[in-house]
Amino acid sequence: MAVRGRGGCCPRMDLLRSEAMQLVQIIIPIESAHRTISYLGDLGLFQFKDLNAEKSPFQRTYATQLKRCGEMARKLRFFKEHMTKAGLSPSKKINSEADIVLDNLEVKLGELEAELIEMNANSENLQRAYNELLEYKLVLEKAGEFFYKAQSRATDQQREFEAQNIGEGSIDSPLLLEQEMSIDFSKQVKLGFTCGLVPREKSMAFERILFRATRGNVYLNQVAVTDPVVDPASGEKVEKNVFVVFYSGEKAKNKILKICEAFGANRYPFADEIGKRFQMIYKVSGRISELKTTIDAGLLHRNNLLQTIACQSEQWNLLVKKEKSVYHKLNMLSMDVTKKCLVAEGWCPTFATKQIQDALQRATFDSNSQVGAIFQVLHTQESPPTYFRTNKFTSSFQEIVDAYGIAKYQEANPGVFTIITFPFLFAVMFGDWGHGICLLLATLYLIMQEKKFSGQKLGDILEMTFGGRYVILLMSLFSIYTGLVYNEFFSIPFELFGPSAYACRDLSCRDATTEGLIKVRRTYPFGVDPVWHGTRSELPFLNSLKMKMSILLGVAQMNLGIILSYFNAKFFGSSLNVWYQFIPQMIFLNSLFGYLSLLIIVKWCTGSQADLYHIMIYMFLRPTDDLGENQLFPGQKTLQLVLLLLALIAVPWMLFPKPFLLKKQHEKRHQGQSYAPLHVTDDSIDLEEHHDSHGSHGHEFEFSEVFVHQLIHTIEFVLGAVSNTASYLRLWALSLAHSELSSVFYEKVLLLAWGFNNVIILIVGIIVFVFATVGVLLVMETLSAFLHALRLHWVEFQNKFYEGDGYKFQPFSFAILNDDDD
After folding, report:
1. Cα(497)–Cα(525) distance, integer angstroms
2. Helix %, strand %, coil % of the chain (to 5)
3. Number of neighbouring beta carbons within 10 Å of residue 464
4. Membrane spanning segments where (predicted)?
5. Which of 113, 334, 488, 707 could form a disulfide with 51 if both were Cys (CB 3.0 to 4.6 A apart)?
6. What digits encode the pLDDT tens for the residues 732-764?
7. What is the dihedral of CA 473, 475, 481, 485, to 10 degrees?
């Protein structure tokens, strides 16, 4: 039975039963509604019900305020993006100054956003102009080199002609030279040209399109720019070529301009006279220097603004989140008929009644309201939410249970027992005190760095490991314990608790066998005698030990589950479940597998050579035959007959009475002969909830459905008693696998490398051994044993008593806002 807190701020923590909950109604004056919800959020012990579920978000009272908060949250995300780009991180310190008014914050955020947008626009324009000037300078330099080389070649050719023209009448002079030299230069066609940059990846296509569009009537020259150039339009670095295109005619010019535009080629003006060209280069260089200074000053001013924002962004962000969550909860409240009050309904623990009332009084006083909030408890048939108060140690164990299903309201919580049974069953499969120490050291590091890691965003795997650090802590401690029981330290036995009880009779027994060993001392005081390791009898001995131990542990845990079903039945007042579920289940399970466990213990105590397989098989096939040499104690045959008869009686005991009694109860209730409240038996509640899961009371009773449900439940338990017991043999199988893998890594890697008497081979062997131990035994085997222990708890243990069909208590709390996304 749960111990309930009786008010006050510090009631006892009780994990066996969830906290007693109550449905309450709070009538709040409008003038103090905001502050009331805010104080309840600080308290974090009230779960609101949505009383406006039929309304869309836009039809609710505080939709406008929510929209404002959303807009402010958008502005804060805008600031955060720019701070990230600038390499700034928001300050984690929250200034404990006077409260910030939301309206003032909205105005301030709007001004800061407008200023930042203007700065960004100016910076983009200046950066674009700067990049254009850099491209222009490259065009002037590269195209200027082309024109300079062309003019140099023309001058050299002219001088060559003049040097060769010695006499006009020379027989070697061309006949048409005189005509060529007498051409009127004013009648020559003057070629136009355009310069610019084109992306290098488009340069070949650019050249082909120019050639085809003008039918070859162009001359194109391209020069590759060594370093990537920042494109003014996109702001990205692009490899480009400087081009010069010569053309003739206005039509060719128009075609070339359109092609340049289509290929994203930036064109720039160019003077073919060298004097003007140098003058333009000088002007562009000066302009580049001025723009660079202006851009640097703008960036400095922008960074100063972002730095100012970063100092307060966390505080602003938290305030906006709080306000948004408060208005979201206010939208869940219904408006009173007079439109002067808001009505809230929700769940809270009974121990929090005084704290909530104090918060309501403070809100009324701080709001200067003339009317206080009214707090009243409502009576309902609705199932309350489930709330367990956990701490950082117990929360991870509770999450293991919650992953299977949330406990029904005040149902027995498996989490209490999971704290011990889960790490213990893990350790049975992982037993090696060397590996346990490695796990312990890793876990202690996580615990010592708890404050550091809890404030960081970790990866998925590391976050999961850090969250379960206390589970791993107990897993490692129990692994050390079971490792001492198995006497294995990286598969090596040690005489920690004294010398072995056995010794060699003579020197001829040193051949890895137990033949020739005699008991010379008292039994090894704790765990497995180290002499068993390395002998030919080691595997049969440990197999027998671990298999029998697995059955004992399994039967004990299944009995615990059935006993918890009794406490559930007593707590909920269901006598039917006590007499027709708990008792026959206990009889059936212990008549078969409880008896098997008894035989195992008697055999261990007496040292008998009886065959337990033979006993259990012929208990069913030939129950009246004499046991002969398999008899472990007097009266065993009679006991077996009685237990077999009880097991056979338990099956119809579970199957038939309960459906007929439920039918009889239903008929009495509807004939007015029984006025017992509906919560007398949880079976009737379950039945009604089965017909109507929304809380309305079902009036139909289908006897066939109830009987089939009970039949399925009976078959499931009878077959499950066998399969679940067999399932616990995984404890033996995984323990054996872990021990054998550890032995293989030690003997076939470490000892083999040691035998070569070579330092390099020994170092390589040690490295391989370490990586194999960490990767396989400390990671993969840990995960494997964890999953198997999880299955044993979810299926074999919890299905005996745990329904897990409840829903979690999710109070409105500001404490979890930092973990939520907008």
Report:
1. 7
2. 60, 10, 30
3. 10
4. 424-447, 468-486, 549-567, 579-602, 638-656, 759-780
5. 334
6. 999 999 999 999 999 999 999 988 888 999 999
7. -160
